[in-house]
Amino acid sequence: MLLFTPGPTPVPQNVRNAMSDETMHHRTPEFEAIFEQTRKHLFNLFKSDEVVMLSSSGTGAMEAAVINLCHKTLLNVNSGKFGERFGKIAIAHGLGSVEIKNEWNTPVSVEAVVEAVKANSEIDAIAVQISESAGGLRHPVEELAKAVKKINPNIMIIADGITAVGVEKIDISNIDCLIAGSQKALMLPPGLSILGLSSLAIEKIGAGRGYYLNLASEIKNQKKNTTAYTAATTLIIGLLEVLKTIEKDGGIEKLYETTALRAKAVEASLEALGLHVYPAVPALSMTTIDDENASQIRKVLQEEFAVNVAGGQDHLNGKIFRINQMGLIPVYEMAWVVNSVELALAKLGHRVYDGTANKVFNEIYFKIGK
Ligand SMILES: *Cc1c(COP(=O)(O)O)cnc(C)c1O
C-alpha cells in the first residue's frame, strides 16, 4: 500500500535501518555527538538563532510555544483543526484568547490580523499555521508577521510549520518560533517535535514556563548537546539520517524545487480530470480536492489501486481527499497516484478513461515539449 496521507508519511528504508540498532543511552558522549550533529543540520534547515528538540508529537511543541511565548493574550488564526488547537491551548492555560476564524479553504487576511492587534493591546503573541493541514491551505504568515512587527516588534509570532518545514523555503525574518514535527515533512515516525527560536523569543522565554515543556531548561541543556529529560534517542538518530539523506539527494533547495514542481504537476493533472482544488491558496505540502464522491474515490484508491490518501475531518468528513506532497517522494509513485485517481473516476462512472492524468503530470513534471 502506498502511504500518501499528509502525515504520517513513509519513512525511507535507510532511515528505518539507522533506527534499528540497539538502544543507546542518552547520557553518553556517543549520543551527544549525534545530538550535536543533528543540531547543526537543524540550524541549517531552520536558519533560526536556536533550535530545541522535544520528545512529543507536534502538539507538544505548539503547547510549549504558547506557554513560553505568550504571557497575556494569544491571537490564533483558525482556518482549520490545527489553528483551532492553538486557541484551545491558550484557554487550557488560562491565557486570554482572541481568534480569527475562517472557512477551512480560506487563508487569513493580513488586514484582519493587523486590525485585531490594534484593537487589543493585551495580545502579546500570534499563532498561525504556515500550512493548515485540515484543508491544505497556505496562510500568508511571512506577510502578517512583517505587518505585526511593524506595529509592535515584541509581539511573538509563532508559526506552526509542521507541514511546511522541509517542504518550502520559509522567510523567518519576522518569525520568533517555527515548529516542525517528525511524522510529516521530516519522514520519521511520530514522537519528536522541533522548535526554531529567534533571539527575541529566547529573551521573552526568560526563566521559562511550565515544567516538561519549559523551553528555558531545554535551551540550557541542548546548547550542551543534552536534554533536560530522556531524549528520544532513536528518533534523533533517524532525524540525523533523514537530514543527511536530503543533503545526499542534492540538498534542501533541490527538495523544495522538486516538491513545488510535483505539487504543481499533481494539481494540474487532477484539475484536467475536472476535479476541484479545495483551498483558495493551496499549500505545497498536500493537494486537497473537494468532491461529493470523495469517500468513494478514497475507497476505490485503497481497495483497488493500493493508494492510501487522507479524507477530511469534522464538517469536511467525506467531502475532501488530501494527497501528500511532503518528503522524498519517488516520482513513479506520484505518477501512479494521479493515474489511480483517473482510474477510480472511470470505475465509479464519473469520467471516461483517456490517460489525461498521467499525460498532464508527465508534461509538467518532465517539462515535455518545453
Ligand atoms: C499534524 C499537525 C499538527 C499536530 O501534530 P501532532 O503530531 O498530531 O500532535 C499540528 N499542526 C499541523 C499543521 C499538523 O499538520
UniProtKB/TrEMBL annotation:
<dbReference type="Pfam" id="PF00266">
    <property type="entry name" value="Aminotran_5"/>
</dbReference>
<dbReference type="InterPro" id="IPR024169">
    <property type="entry name" value="SP_NH2Trfase/AEP_transaminase"/>
</dbReference>
<dbReference type="GO" id="GO:0008483">
    <property type="term" value="F:transaminase activity"/>
</dbReference>
<keyword id="KW-0663">Pyridoxal phosphate</keyword>
<comment type="similarity">
    <text>Belongs to the class-V pyridoxal-phosphate-dependent aminotransferase family.</text>
</comment>
<dbReference type="InterPro" id="IPR015422">
    <property type="entry name" value="PyrdxlP-dep_Trfase_small"/>
</dbReference>
<feature type="binding site">
    <location>
        <position position="322"/>
    </location>
    <ligand>
        <name>substrate</name>
    </ligand>
</feature>
<keyword id="KW-0808">Transferase</keyword>
<dbReference type="InterPro" id="IPR000192">
    <property type="entry name" value="Aminotrans_V_dom"/>
</dbReference>
<keyword id="KW-0032">Aminotransferase</keyword>
<dbReference type="InterPro" id="IPR015424">
    <property type="entry name" value="PyrdxlP-dep_Trfase"/>
</dbReference>
<dbReference type="InterPro" id="IPR020578">
    <property type="entry name" value="Aminotrans_V_PyrdxlP_BS"/>
</dbReference>
<feature type="modified residue" description="N6-(pyridoxal phosphate)lysine">
    <location>
        <position position="184"/>
    </location>
</feature>
<feature type="domain" description="Aminotransferase class V">
    <location>
        <begin position="2"/>
        <end position="313"/>
    </location>
</feature>
<dbReference type="InterPro" id="IPR015421">
    <property type="entry name" value="PyrdxlP-dep_Trfase_major"/>
</dbReference>
<protein>
    <submittedName>
        <fullName>Alanine--glyoxylate aminotransferase family protein</fullName>
    </submittedName>
</protein>
